[in-house]
Amino acid sequence: MRNIISLLIRYSAFIVFLTLECLSFYLIVNYNKSQKEIWANSSNMFTGGVNSYVQGVEDFFALQNRNDSLLIENAQLLETIINYRINSKDNSFQAFEDSDSTSNYSLIPSRVCSKTINLRNNYMTLCKGSKDSIQVGMGVLTEDGIAGIISQVSPDFSTVLMILNSESRTSAKIKGKNYFGNLLWRKSNPLIMTLTDVPKHAEIMVGDTIVTSGYSISYPEDVYIGTISDYSLRDGSNSYSIDVQLATDFSKTDYVYVVSYKLADQKEELISTDE
């Protein structure tokens, strides 16, 4: 208590000055019309600015929640499309409606934490991991096409070996013509990949659609990849070198869908036995 009294005595002149200043300000604002209007306008502008900032912060978090909700809805829609398209080849629509066993594919939506697209070997980090049922070997889709395959997983994060990687090999086919090949990234352009091993007797043309073959356990069949932009046949070669214009622009990719295939272990076991 003594210290408080001593502090007040030491700064008494400043405290008196500050008190008189506040009193003078109060009298000026309340008993002068012009100053009162100026104060009202200034305070309204200040509080309006603060409220606008606070509202902007609230809108940001609300927008993030809406984005997450839309991401889940998109994942559910893509799941339905993928499972129906695959099962409709062998089953009736009614069978698809009546049986949950036909839903072999499910999608796990995730935000992209980080990525590279300009290196020779590019990777993407997702903000979900093993806690969210993500496993090594799962395929990763974008809204427009394919992104890569899960190569590493931690409890909260996972790494994607992108298709824009020299080590990436994706089994693909020309839709409607069923010529198969391997999709590689041989060029520095992140929008162009190369489809190899398509035989020279194949009837192809610029604009043909390239989709996944469904041979691997990572991707469902017939997922859109891109279109043929150019092709060539080298002297003495028995297969085309085909440029594929990707549908996905990875510089704009912020959200992806990880593919979970519940029959993956069975299919992988059979593939390993055949080899």
**Main sheet attributes: strand count, strand direction, barrel closure:** 6 strands, antiparallel, barrel
CATH topology of the largest domain: Thrombin, subunit H
Tell me roughly what share of residues is in helical segments.
25-40%
The shape, in one word, is elongated
Q: What string, H for helix and E for strand, traces the elements in order?
A: HHHHEEEEEEEEEEEEH
List low-pLDDT spans.
92-102
**In percent, how much strand structure appears in the residues?**
25-35%
* Number of strand segments: 12
Terminal residue distance:
87 Å
Spell out the blueprint of helices and strands:
Elements: H1 2-10, H2 12-31, H3 33-87, H4 93-98, E1 105-115, E2 121-126, E3 139-141, E4 146-153, E5 158-165, E6 170-174, E7 179-184, E8 192-199, E9 209-212, E10 224-232, E11 239-246, E12 255-261, H5 264-274
Antiparallel strand pairs: 1-2, 1-12, 2-5, 3-4, 3-12, 4-5, 6-7, 6-9, 7-8, 8-11, 9-10, 10-11
Helix pairs in contact: 2-3
Concise summary:
The chain is an alpha+beta fold. Helix content is 37%, strand content 30%.
What do these coordinates show?
This protein has 275 residues and is of the alpha+beta class. Helices cover 37% and strands 30% of the residues. It has helices spanning 2-10, 12-31, 33-87, 93-98, 264-274, and strands at 105-115, 121-126, 139-141, 146-153, 158-165, 170-174, 179-184, 192-199, 209-212, 224-232, 239-246, 255-261. A six-stranded antiparallel beta barrel has the order 1-2-5-4-3-12. A six-stranded antiparallel beta barrel has the order 6-7-8-11-10-9. Strand 3 (139-141) and strand 4 form a beta hairpin. The radius of gyration is 31 Å and the shape is elongated. It starts with a helix and ends with a helix.
